[in-house]
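can u do me a favor
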């Protein structure tokens, strides 16, 4: 059995795309997944399965479509991949508030042209690092008015992406490791 982290894009934000986590956990267990845990209401799932990550993500998308009538993109990482994301922490020396430190998880490599757009969107105090299929972003003034955050959260990246703050990322690793 492999531990996997599945991140749902854009659920439970406002009145749209409502996916109750208790019902989602029950549906996943009924589908044969084990050790299913969710964290918060923003679509964070940790589970164990023999399936590969891509199969699990597609199965979860289908389950959400069937059970809740929603088309929700799912981005996944293995437990080992998430551990590397946390260990890498390229902005840890400047990111002093974990709520303002975000990791965007991508379903594929970021197109080269998109990097330039992100650089143009950021203000001087903001930082971001692209590493593989993750973008680490530090927003010291918060995300509410950040153009960089708007570019990261929108659909203009050229790949499917979903972001989590550093507190959530580290908590998900605890769940993968059986700590939380």
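np, heres the sequence
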């Amino acid at each position: 059995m492999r531990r996997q982290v599945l991140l749902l894009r854009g659920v439970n934000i406002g009145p749209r795309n409502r996916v109750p986590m208790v019902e989602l956990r029950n549906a996943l267990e009924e589908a044969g997944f084990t050790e299913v845990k969710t964290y918060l209401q923003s679509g964070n799932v940790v589970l164990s399965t023999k399936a590969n990550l891509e199969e699990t993500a597609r199965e979860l998308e289908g389950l959400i479509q069937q059970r809740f009538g929603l088309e929700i993109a799912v981005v996944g990482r293995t437990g080992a991949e998430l551990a590397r994301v946390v260990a890498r922490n390229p902005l840890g020396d400047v990111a002093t508030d974990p709520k303002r430190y975000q990791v965007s998880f991508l379903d594929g490599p970021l197109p080269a042209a998109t990097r330039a757009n992100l650089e143009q969107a950021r203000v001087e105090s903001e930082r971001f690092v692209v590493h593989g299929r993750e973008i680490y972003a530090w927003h010291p003034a918060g995300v509410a008015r950040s153009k960089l955050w708007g570019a990261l959260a929108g659909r203009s990246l050229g790949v499917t992406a979903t972001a989590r703050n550093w507190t959530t990322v580290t908590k998900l690793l605890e769940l993968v490791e059986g700590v939380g």
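DSSP finds six helices and eight strands in the chain. hope that helps!!
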